[in-house]
Amino acid sequence: MMAALIDPDKNDRRSLVRIVQNSQMADIDFFFIGGSLLIKDELDQTIALIKEHSEIPCVLFPGSVMQISSKADAILFLSLISGRNPEFLIGNHVIAAPYIRQTSLEVIPTGYMLIHCGNTTTAHYISATLPIPSDKDDIAAVTAMAGEMLGFKLIYLDAGSGASHPIRPSMIEAVRQSVEIPIIVGGGIRSALQAKQTYDAGADILVIGNALEKNASLIQQLAEVAKNPGVIKG
Ligand code: 1GP
Hints:
By secondary structure, the chain is of the alpha/beta class. The protein is about 40% helix and about 20% strand. An eight-stranded parallel beta barrel has the order 1-2-3-4-5-7-8-9, surrounded by six helices. The chain is globular. The chain binds SN-glycerol-1-phosphate (1GP). SN-glycerol-1-phosphate binds near residues 5, 160, 189, 207 and 210.
């Protein structure tokens, strides 16, 4: 499956509509909506605009409690299990839970793991946690294993938006072998080849964000890989 990450801070109306229309044509599975910061306070408007132009489900991928909107369809209820910051493990969840309970959002408990892939991303910095080093496949595998045992329904391996390179296939393979729940992988994916390597290693859902802001039509190439990982064009 494939998800396009929409950061409400990063797109003007015109580029957002272009990404949404291309995503609709490419028949992707989800929009993930969120970011580490929320500078423009345009979360509700962004979701409304997406829904004007497509029927693809909108899943919140919140960087903070300020990024919850009842206009979305679901929320990744993320616990940052690669880190040891109690606010991102449980603190923010306690604050958000009663509000989320009043909405009709589908809540998807997700073990979220940040991986250091070359550069310090905004997500690493804002979370004030130490990401898992990109070559420590064993740490990633046992962290995901613990996440599954704690009851998370998904594992999200994230190099962070704008990572200089994607998560190495060997780490995705190690995590794939350690859990049965679906694995989301994102961060730094910029080409069909990287997408294919990510799927081949065992990712169930691939997330693409930054690269779409530069090349809105890339989504079509990646969606083809998602539907038929054996084929790469271009
Ligand atoms: C980040 O996984 C997402 O949380 C997507 O990353 O923006 O680098 O594609 P990119």
